[in-house]
Amino acid sequence: FLHQISILTSRTLSSRSEPAGKLHVLPQPRLSSTATPKLCGHVHSENNKAGMRSFLAVVAVSASATAFVVPARRHALTRRAAHDDGDTITQLIDAKEAELADADAVTTTKTTTTMPNYVEQANYFDGDRPAPAWELAQTNFLKQGATILGQVAESIGLQKRDPGAVPASLGLVLSNEAVTEAERKREASGGRVDAHPVSRKLYDVGCLFLDTLFDERPIQRFWFLEVIARIPYFSYVSMLHLYESFGWWRGPELRKVHNAEEWNELHHLLIMEALGGNSLWSDRFLGYHVAIGYYWILNVVFFFSPRIAYQFMELLEAHAVDTYGTFVVQNRERLAELPAPAVATSYYSSGDLYLFDDFQVSTPPETRRPDCATLLDVFTNIAIDEGEHVKTMQACQDYARIGARVVSPHMDGAHAAESREKWVRWAAEVNEAAKH
Q1: Residues 219 and 272 sit within 8 Å (Cβ to Cβ)
Q2: How would you classify residue 112: left for phi > 0, otherwise alpha for psi between -120 and 50, otherwise beta?
Q3: Where are the beta strands (DSSP E) in 92-194?
Q4: Are 97 and 78 in contact (CB under 8 A)?
Q5: 339: helix, coil or strand?
Q6: At 374, is the secondary structure helix, strand, or coil?
Q7: Which of 9, 32, 81, 192 could hold 187 in an S-S bridge, CB 3.0 to 4.6 Å?
Q8: Distance of alpha carbon 336 from alpha carbon 65, whole angstroms
Q9: What φ, ψ does residue 359 adopt, rounded to 5°?
Q10: Bridge partners of 28?
Q11: pTM over 0.70
Q12: Ordered DSSP codes for 6-23
């Protein structure tokens, strides 16, 4: 509609025009910005009047569209607040989501004229077939060996790096100090995760490691984090299968939620790979080997205490909210200029969204359908996803502690009401014991 008006206006104005600025509107195909022509003298006064009326019409319609976009986006990012149980950290997560939707921020119109050199994949597969382990290992060794030589050649100056390759060409930044400050503010406001002392120490060491190794390399840092972030859900499902195989305990709905959580983290990982986060052999080597060790450690922790295993993941997911939220704030304008990679639009917009709904146990199905036109949309969505993981990990801890069952949000409300009733009963018992 705006495009038709602009065409009509251009016909009534002088052919000489000068762009006066961009009007931010909802992303539309083949329309990234709208130019406001400069009025010129004309020999016919009637044509001048008609041109002015058309110009004012474009301004009025564009202003109305902007007034609609900002409140609608704020509502889309904050509507889940009504489903929270009122825990302090949950409220802080929702506050972070509201902050990401600040009405004064740049809107998410795609303004880039050239497509970044994303590393797009045709499908989810990495390989041809499920071959024997020794064959896959040999193939991978040869493939990785070639990239080792390339990385060494670049490091000693024998080979030049491609200036147009991602992620360096994206021009994105992340301040370690800003992430630490965001975490400090959250914990000072009552959002500190009550983690086991050993878990807290391991977490602190891990944060120091990330800050040192991935300083000024935010996309590579995110790729590493997403490799690690999938591992707990692999571990949880493995241990639940073990319990069921021994006939100790069966929880298929919990396994289903964990599978949906892993599917979400997988797409975060694929997005980072499209942005070049795994381009260096050294990052891949470190990420994969840390993930293997982390998996077996979590299996042992879960075996002795599922609650502590879930608690440690809550700690990591809360840190992810701080990290992605800070990244969005520091790169908002640049992210708004860059288009979303295909894997992101497929996951958030055009693909099968059943599993996307399934990992958000505090949100009714089909109520969260975020925009995904630019990288600003993508990273805002990822930050909100991490907040939803925090809530799910809290629910899993309640399940392990008091039996407040965690089920797919696609199920009817009977199970949710039962879990809520158990939680209220447990809280009453704790309050009563505190009086004595």
Answers
A1: yes
A2: beta
A3: none
A4: yes
A5: strand
A6: strand
A7: 192
A8: 18
A9: -85, -10
A10: 31
A11: yes
A12: HHHHHHHS-S--------
